[in-house]
Write a structure and sequence with these properties.
The protein has 227 residues and is mostly helical. The chain is built from 11 helices and no strands. Helix 6 crosses helix 9 and helix 10 runs antiparallel to helix 11.
Length: 227
């Protein structure tokens, strides 16, 4: 856990690409930018594509290709391209993640994700205040930006700061980030966007309750978290 205790710098290239995909670019443009970024990583790796050792990845790739070929004969090409786009976007970032770790050294990926989540949440609060639309739909539309990405980062923040007492920046700053990001998630007012991170946090909490040595302290932490 040394990379958590002593983070150095942020991966600025990755941070800029993630922020541009969330705030600036459309999904299509972001896909093209991500593809170029993957090619740059592959070039730095002497043109070798690193496939992560993930169970079922080859089957996943096969099903994407098979679904595309089969869909081409059964449905309009526009519909097939649209659906394949969603699957290949996930696959693209799996490959980026694997080749990114291969090439990058010295900075903290976790710190980069913290900064990303914080900036996106602050951006949403800024847009919310500027628009001045305080009804249900106004709140929901302003806070939907990046909420699904943040929903995956928030449980990691809770695990590190709340249970493991590992702070990326400092105790106060990490806590402030968690509060702002949590407010962003709940103000999105979406059932899935709230349920997924909440379920992940509760799962983490109960696993900690089961496996932590100091169960009395863990029980108190889970109780406070639930409240």
């Amino acid at each position: 856990m040394e990379y958590i205790k002593k983070p150095t710098n942020v991966y600025w290239d990755l941070l800029v690409i993630l922020l541009s995909g969330t705030i600036i670019f459309s999904q299509t443009v972001f896909f093209l930018v991500s593809t170029v970024y993957l090619l740059i990583l592959i070039q730095k790796n002497h043109f070798k594509i690193l496939l992560p050792k993930i169970g079922g990845l080859k089957l996943y790739i096969f099903l994407v290709v098979w679904g595309g070929v089969l869909g081409y004969y059964l449905y309009p090409i526009r519909n097939v391209a649209r659906d394949i786009f969603y699957f290949t976007s996930t696959l693209l970032w799996i490959l980026i993640g694997a080749n990114f770790i291969k090439n990058k050294r010295g900075a903290s990926l976790l710190k980069t994700l913290y900064v990303y989540a914080f900036i996106v949440s602050i951006y949403c609060f800024y847009i919310f205040l500027i628009n001045g639309n305080f009804d249900f739909n106004g709140i929901r539309l302003n806070f939907v930006t990046g909420v699904y990405d943040i929903g995956f980062i928030l449980p990691i923040m809770i695990l590190n700061s709340f249970f493991n007492r590992h702070f990326v920046f400092s105790k106060k700053l990490d806590t402030l980030i968690i509060i702002i990001v949590s407010a962003h998630v709940f103000l999105s007012l979406g059932r899935i966007s709230i349920f997924v991170p909440l379920a992940s946090i509760l799962l983490v909490a109960f696993l900690v309750l089961i496996y932590k040595k100091n169960r009395k302290r863990s029980f108190l932490q889970v109780f406070i978290l639930l409240v």
